[in-house]
Amino acid sequence: MLEPLSQGLIGSRFRWAITGAAGFVGSHLVESLLALGQEVVGMDNFLSGSTKNLEEATEKLTDDQRRRFTFIEGDIRNPEDCLALCRGVDIVLHQAALVSVPRSFEDPLLNNQCNVDGFLNVLLAAKKSGARSFVYASSAAVYGDGGEKILTEDASLNPKSPYAVAKMTDELYSQVFASDLNIAGLRYMNVYGPRQDPTSPYSGVISIWLSRIAQGQQPVIFGDGKNTRDFIYVKDVVQANIKAALFKGEKHEVFNIGTGHSVTLLDLLSVIRELYSEKTGKVAPEGTFAPFREGDIRYSKADISKAEKMLNYKPTYDLREGLDRTIDWFIFQRTG
Ligand code: UD2
Q1: Residue from 293, 298, 301 whose mutation best tests the ligand 1 pocket (most atoms within 8 A of CB)
Q2: CA nearest 322: which of 196, 222, 220?
């Protein structure tokens, strides 16, 4: 996986700032960039991130690679922390967020503070520090319900949750502030993989289901199980971030980042149960149904050809491969 990525970085050592460095996606970015010989400064407030993620991210690195990492405990809601993080960096990868559709309904103000004000603090700090590029996590949620259409980046946006409103607002701010900074917004589909927090009720469906199954509990399916999602393995999201950061394009571009293939929740569960049985020799509990969740999108299927063409982004893990590694981590606590 690191091979094609290292091509773009041969002979260059950049200084990268990563917000949410102790979180799920952020810690994978820390790991891959240090392994590629880069200088990394990470920031996290440990609201949902953990030192365990950082330990896991750095445990297989050499001492030399590990020495190139600096960590700042700080909060994106504090402009001073953002300025300290961005001082002297070349590239900013902004991953910190309050990541949950249901949580954004429960606490829309906190959603706005983290996902809009916090975003703006990081963007303005990146500009002020003279960084050359800024890549941020947007979301498929900005599209809202597009029916069964395959969505391209120019589809109209129709946010259905405070979380989606925040991500859409971030895209609008990026449009406005992109004069002397290359900015890329990555509309993540549904990201999964090792280190996705299994203990939070707000976490992604795969981590919640795997942790329930591992404890012998039934996974809960909200709705009829026919919602569709494009599940993207975290290492492919790392690939997209690095390629977007090195891409010199228009001042602000948005890209769909997924596999290009969607599955229903029922199909997802049957692959998980099958792999779980193969690996453990045990039968995984069957799913149980609960009402549809507020603000949920029914179908999510995105066209990734813009990222393929412009960034040379190529998803390398299909659902089975990604789940295989994720189950290993959840069940056997092995990193994938
Ligand atoms: C949205 C975004 C995603 C990301 C995420 C952050 C879309 C299409 N995707 O993901 O890009 O930004 O928000 O949170 O908008 N579910 C169950 N049982 C459970 C948990 C979830 O059935 O125990 C269902 C849930 O109702 C939904 C699907 O699984 O239909 C995925 O839910 P999720 O919370 O993992 O992510 P989602 O789609 O809200």
Answers
A1: 293
A2: 196
